[in-house]
Amino acid sequence: MKELLSSAGRLVRQFPRTHLLLSMVLLGGVILIALSPDSPPEQPRQQAKTISLPAKPARKPEPQPQAPQAPEWQILTVQAGDSLSSLLQPLGVGAGQVFALINSDDKLQRLTKIRPGETLQVTVDNDNRLTQVQYHPSKVETLTARLRGGGWETRLSQREYQKQTRFAEADITDSLFLAGAAAGISDKLTMQLANLFAWDVDFVLDIRRGDRFRIIYEELYLDGEKVGEGDILMAEFWNQDRHLTAFRYETRSGDVEYLDIKGDSMRKEFIRTPVAFSRISSRFNLSRKHPVLNRIRAHKGIDYAAPSGTPIKAAGDGKVIFAGVKGGYGNVIILKHGQIYTTLYAHMRGFARGIRVGKRVKQSQTIGYVGASGLATGPHLHYEFRINGSHRNPLTVPLPKARGINDNERSEFLIAANRLKAQMTLFAEASTLASSDVL
Ligand SMILES: [Zn+2]
User: Fold this and answer.
1) Rounded CA gap, 138 and 135, in Å?
2) How far is the CA of 215 from the centre of ligand 1 (A)?
3) Does a structural domain hold residue 428?
4) pLDDT tens track of the chain, all 439 residues?
5) Contact criterion met (CB below 8 Å) for 72 and 91
6) Based on the domain organization, do 289 and 372 belong to the same domain?
7) Of 105, 133, 158, which one is at a domain's C-terminal end?
8) For residue 399, how far is its CA from the centre of ligand 1 (angstroms)?
9) How far does residue 194's CA lie from ligand 1's centre (Å)?
C-alpha cells in the first residue's frame, strides 16, 4: 500500500505536464457510457414547516411556503461562531436543556458539530421548552429528536442514493492516473482501481505501453443530481501478459470484499512494504559488510530509509510477541501472524500507543515510528520476514493470499460475479460499436 501511495504521488506530480496532450491523444480511444439512463426515482422530501418568529429574532428565520397545523417549526440558520446554545438562546431555551439534549444520546453529539450555513429546525412550547429538533448532518442524513415523557426520542435516518452503473475503459500510455483522467473518471476512482490491484501490480514499475483497463462502477445521485462516485463493481486490468479481474462482493455479514473469479481475495495476507514514502537503503544480503561494525555480517532484512517519525505499519494481522529493546536492533517489535509467520521491525523511535506484548494488530495498523535506535547510521526501518523461524527476503518471498469467500457463500458469489461479467460484456460491446461508428 505504501508503495502504491508514493507511486500515486509520483504519478500525480507527472500529471500537469502531459495532461493536455495525453487527453487529446486518448480522446478517440476512451468511451464513457451510461447504463439504464432512467431518471432516478423521486425522493421523499421534507415536510413543509410552519414558522413562527421569535419576538426579537436574533437570526433571520427563513420563510416557509405553507402553514399547516401545530407544532410550529422554527428554522434556525447557523452563523459563524454559533453553538447550539447560542442558537437556541433567543428562543428562551436555556443551556440546561441543551446540555440534557446532547447528552441523552450519542447520536445527538452531532448537534455539537453544527457548521455555519447549516439549518436546524426546532419546536419550542409555550413554557420555552425545546420539544423537537431536526438536523441534517450530511446530505443524506436526517437526525430527529422528540421530547417524550421527559426524555428524548432520537432517530437518525439515511436517504438512499440513487445509483447508476457506468462503464469506463482506457489504454494506458503513460500512467494509470492520466489514463483514468482521460477516461473521465475521478482520481478517487482511479485510486480505488489502483488499490484493487495493488497487491499484484506495481503501478510505477510494472506498467507497459498497451496495458489497459475497463471498469463498471456506480455513480451516486440525490434528487436527480450527481453527487459522486460509489464503488467499482468490477474491474479488469491487462498488464503485460496478465489479465486480472476483480469483483466487488458484499458478504452475508455485510463486509465488502474484492474477489477474483474463483472467490479468492485480491488482497494478500501481508503488505510488501511496511513504511510509506521510503526508499530501500539496504537489501537482503547474506554477505553484507555492516556499515557500523564494518565487517561482514549477513543482512537478513530490508532497510527502508525514511524520515524519523514516519509511521510503521503492521505487515499483516497478528499479535505482538515482543515490544522492547533488543541490542543493536534498538526498539523492536515482533509480530506473529498465524502459526508460521513472524515479522520484525527494528530501530524504531518509539511504539504506537497501546502496542504491547499480547496485543492484536490489524494489517496496516500503525505500530511504531521510524527512528535510529540501536546500531543505526540514520533513521530507517529494518524489516525482517521469517517463515518457521528462517529469514526470507521480504521483497521476493511469495505472499499468501488473504482468505477469500466462505465456502457456504461461494455459489452466491459466483452468481453475482457472472452477472457483473455479463454486464461488462454488454458495455464493452456497446463501447466498441460506438467507437466504430465514430471512425
Ligand atoms: Zn537493516
Assistant:
1) 9
2) 41
3) no
4) 444 444 443 433 333 333 433 333 333 333 343 333 334 444 444 333 334 444 444 455 555 555 445 668 999 999 999 999 999 999 999 999 999 999 999 999 999 999 999 999 999 998 899 999 999 998 889 999 999 988 999 999 998 899 999 999 999 988 888 999 999 999 999 999 988 988 888 777 788 888 999 999 999 999 889 988 999 999 999 998 899 999 999 999 888 999 999 999 998 899 888 987 778 888 998 877 676 667 777 899 999 999 999 999 999 999 999 999 999 999 999 999 999 999 999 999 999 999 999 999 999 899 999 999 999 989 999 999 999 999 999 988 988 888 889 999 999 999 999 999 999 999 999 988 887 765 5
5) no
6) yes
7) 158
8) 21
9) 30
Output the CA 13–ligand 1 centroid distance in Å.
30
Distance from the CA of 352 to the center of ligand 1, in angstroms?
Answer: 21
Number of domains, the chain: 3
What is the extent of the structural domain holding 387? Answer: 279-392
CA of 331 to the centre of ligand 1 (A): 13
Q: How far is the CA of 360 from the centre of ligand 1 (A)?
A: 25
- The secondary structure element, H or E, covering residue 415 is helix 410-438
Here the CATH number for the domain that contains residue 364 is 2.70.70.10
- Of 220, 234, 221, 227, nearest in space to 192 by CA: 234
Ligand 1 mean position, distance from CA 329 (Å): 9
Cis previous bond, 71, omega within 30: yes
Q: Domain containing 93 — which CATH number?
A: 3.10.450.350
Clarify whether residues 375 and 286 are in a common domain: yes
Which of 259, 289, 309 terminates a domain? The answer is 259
Angle at 362 between CA 372 and CA 206, to 5 degrees: 75
